[in-house]
């Protein structure tokens, strides 16, 4: 069976990717330091505990498994934290990725699928965000991801590394079969925080800023179901296997929802009140991030089928209410 090295396979998106890969006939090998992931989320293939900053450990794992492709999810991804502690993002995300990319090249593993982000575009009022758009990140998280994109380009030119880069918009939802789901500690993402507030596990959801230049004053984001997102990754992997070369794809639906709209939908889907506070803006937040690209649909044949707000919230809610959520 073809092995895929999945960094961050114990995390939210990585664990869903492992399930999808296993279903598609691959063997996902998880490499994870479980700093933000969970060992019990590694269910679909071997687990290799390790840190991206440990080059010797990476070499050992490449030698043991000889993966055909790397899928690189492992990273810190909290925008607010990246503004308080940029060094953490540059060290782990950028240095860690450099180690990984060098180890892959040295091992002759030249197919690389990378989790990037729409945060690399920064705040571009009214501009349609497609893949050709200028990248001007406004937070350290986005800057760290853009640096890794540049690194992949350079290693491609010099060492023949081929990459598919996915720039994610906002990922939400959970495996509808309930085997894996979203679980961060501390939690920082809108939908799980809101579900916590609905269930009384925190007093209220704080809306970060209500004076933005948007129809209702709150930030707008483009939400994608995690299953649709990882489906695109399997398509990206096949793209590389077919020798189609390096390519960048946005993963968003092209529809934006404000924080208040997400709150309203959550109240309807769960049939519960959402306790809400109105707070200050969060440093590093872009006003609106909505994909304006159909490249993934056109070139990968990607169809985001579960990415309605209702389905994403319903799947997240089912996971949230299952015993799995409480570790
Ligand atoms: N947000 C919020 N309150 C929270 C968490 C998030 O108002 O407790 C807002 C945040 O400002 C952004 C949106 O919800 O506009 C999505 O934030 P999240 O952290 O989930 O993802 P990000 O857009 O930072 O990747």
UniProtKB/TrEMBL annotation:
Keywords: Carbohydrate metabolism, Isomerase, NAD
Domain NAD-dependent epimerase/dehydratase: 4-252
Pfam families for this protein: Epimerase
First-tier enzyme category under EC: isomerase
EC number: 5.1.3.2
Pathway connected to this protein: Carbohydrate metabolism; galactose metabolism
A single BP term in Gene Ontology: galactose catabolic process via UDP-galactose, Leloir pathway
InterPro entries the UniProt entry points to: Epimerase_deHydtase (IPR001509), NAD(P)-bd_dom_sf (IPR036291), UDP_G4E (IPR005886)
Keyword NAD annotated: yes
GO molecular function, one term: UDP-glucose 4-epimerase activity
Domain of life, source organism: Bacteria
Catalytic activity: UDP-alpha-D-glucose = UDP-alpha-D-galactose
Needed cofactors: NAD(+)
Family named by the database record: Belongs to the NAD(P)-dependent epimerase/dehydratase family.
Subunit structure: Homodimer.
NCBIfam families: galE
Protein name: UDP-glucose 4-epimerase
Species in which this protein is naturally found: Tranquillimonas alkanivorans
């Amino acid at each position: 069976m073809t092995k895929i090295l999945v960094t961050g396979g114990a995390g939210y998106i990585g664990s869903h990717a492992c399930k999808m890969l296993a279903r598609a006939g691959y063997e996902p090998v998880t490499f994870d330091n479980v700093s933000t992931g969970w060992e019990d989320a590694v269910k679909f293939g071997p687990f290799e505990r390790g840190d991206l900053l440990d080059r010797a450990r990476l070499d050992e794992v490449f030698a043991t498994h000889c993966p055909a492709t790397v899928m690189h999810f492992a990273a810190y991804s909290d925008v607010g934290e990246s503004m308080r502690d940029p060094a953490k993002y540059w060290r782990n995300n950028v240095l860690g990725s450099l180690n990984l990319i060098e180890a892959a090249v040295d091992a002759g593993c030249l197919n690389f699928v990378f989790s990037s982000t729409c945060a690399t575009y920064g705040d571009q009022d009214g501009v349609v965000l497609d893949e050709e758009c200028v990248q001007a990140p406004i937070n350290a998280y986005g800057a760290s991801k853009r640096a890794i994109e540049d690194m992949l380009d350079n290693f491609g030119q010099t060492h023949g590394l081929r990459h598919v880069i996915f720039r994610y918009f906002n990922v939400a939802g959970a495996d509808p079969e309930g085997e894996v789901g979203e679980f961060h500690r501390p939690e920082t993402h809108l939908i799980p925080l809101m579900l916590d507030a609905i269930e009384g596990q925190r007093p209220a959801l704080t809306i970060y800023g209500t004076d933005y230049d948007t129809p209702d004053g709150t930030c707008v984001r483009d939400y994608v179901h995690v299953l649709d997102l990882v489906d695109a990754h399997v398509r990206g992997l096949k793209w590389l296997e077919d020798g189609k070369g390096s390519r960048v794809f946005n993963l968003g639906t092209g529809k934006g929802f404000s924080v208040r709209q997400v709150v309203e939908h959550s109240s309807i889907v769960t049939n519960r009140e959402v306790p809400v506070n109105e707070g200050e803006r969060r440093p590093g937040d872009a006003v609106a991030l909505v994909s304006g690209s159909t490249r993934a649909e056109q070139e990968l044949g990607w169809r985001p089928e579960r990415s309605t707000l209702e389905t994403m919230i319903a799947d997240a809610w089912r996971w949230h209410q299952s015993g799995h959520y409480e570790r």
